[in-house]
Amino acid sequence: MGSAMTAAEPAVGLAARLSATMPALRGRLLANEPLAPFTWLRVGGPAEVLFTPADTEDLAYFLKNLPAEIPVTVIGLASNMIIRDGGIPGVVIRFSPKGFGQVIVEEGHRIRAGAFAADRKVAVAAAEAGIGGLEFYFGIPGSIGGALRMNAGTRSNTNPEIEGETRERFVEAKAVTRAGEIVLLKPEDMKFAYRNCGVAPDTIFVEALFQGFARPPAEAHAINAAVQEHREKDQETKVRTAGSTFKNPPGHSSWRLIRDAGGLDLRVGQAEMSRKHANFLIAHDGATAADIETLGEEIRKRVKAKSGIELEWEVKRVGIG
Ligand SMILES: Cc1cc2nc3c(=O)[nH]c(=O)nc-3n(C[C@H](O)[C@H](O)[C@H](O)COP(=O)(O)OP(=O)(O)OC[C@H]3O[C@@H](n4cnc5c(N)ncnc54)[C@H](O)[C@@H]3O)c2cc1C
Fold first, then answer.
1. What pLDDT digit, counting tens, does each position of 176-232 carry?
2. The domain defined by 11-94 carries CATH number 3.30.200.20
3. Rounded to an integer, what distance in angstroms lies between the CA atom of residue 116 and that of residue 103?
């Protein structure tokens, strides 16, 4: 990320310059645009430039013409993201529901979804169409683009029906590379792993196709409801969080490691760990990204001291402090 956003050129200058060099651009470029309202944690500074592409071709045109030295960050529904207080230098890309939010039911129990479609919308559309296997998306508050990047999914010790992971249902995805090339990615290209995928970090997903199976709508809706019930029982759903803060280390649960290291008593500024689910971090009113990140780092230190295990952030931290 490097240089501070105001160093060489005011944000308005960069937006105006990009606009001037891309006469065929149809999407919207905004300078110095606040991002906190778009995030689940409601913290963080502005985007130097926020770009909302009109459609895939517009995104490809933009990236093709964007000078290579300008950093690009894509955000989905920012439910797995801490945007730092100094904001994000370069260009932030955020889709619109109109351009990238569609969900289409296809033959053979398949669902095609735009990268900005909410996971929950996909689960509901699948249930209505008599397609099973996508119910786990009902409880994940992100977008399909974020689900592909994170290999989003859910495990349950008590009810296998509510379990699932993006890679299990994935058929193919359309994406745009940093060079502006539109590509089709197959399962072997995705290199899915636990809460991760191996596609180049600057490649942007625009659409995905998922394979489900026949399941009566009433059954699928009932499983969606069970997903919701499970969430409300075991997780924080009424406060500002980013879901699981840390990945589970092999053979361990992060929440247990955090609890055993005394992490539940920690608070930094207006950020604290949840007592309901010790791997969730809560941002109270007035919290800053610095409060949240400092709390997370303190937790990592305590867990390392107590158990020798290094927790790895699941939440993506972007921007400058
Ligand atoms: C209450 C709560 C519960 C949660 N429960 C779960 C859960 O059970 N399982 C789970 O897996 N996650 C869970 N999460 C975390 C989060 O919802 C998922 O990681 C989700 O997939 C993130 O999607 P997003 O659109 O919000 O992505 P963002 O948070 O916006 O971004 C996450 C990452 O994806 C990248 N990204 C986003 N869109 C694109 C795109 N179009 N192309 C390329 N990269 C992109 C971003 O650059 C970033 O690196 C939970 C979060 C909350 C707040």
1. 999 999 999 999 999 999 999 999 999 999 999 999 999 999 999 999 999 999 988
2. no
3. 10
Task: Classify domain 254-318 by CATH architecture.
Answer: Alpha-Beta Complex (3.90)
| Amino acid symbol at 188 | E
CA-closest candidate to residue 167, choices 142, 195, 203, 140:
195
CA of 285 to the centre of ligand 1 (A): 22
Supply the pTM of this predicted model: 0.96
Report, as residue numbers or ranges, the catalytic residues.
195, 244, 314
**Cα of 282 to ligand 1 centre, how many Å?**
17
Distance in Å, CA 78 to ligand 1 centroid:
6
- Residue minimizing CA distance to atom 39 of ligand 1: 145
Q: Pocket around ligand 1: residues whose beta carbon is below 6 Å from it?
A: 40, 74-81, 115, 139-143, 145-147, 149-150, 152-154, 204-205, 241-243, 316
Q: Is the separation of the CB atoms in 236 and 139 below 8 Å? A: no
pLDDT digit string (tens) for 262-295?
Answer: 998 899 999 999 988 999 999 999 999 999 999 9
Q: Is domain 100-234 classified as CATH 1.10.287.110?
A: no
For the chain, the domains span 11-94, 100-234, 254-318
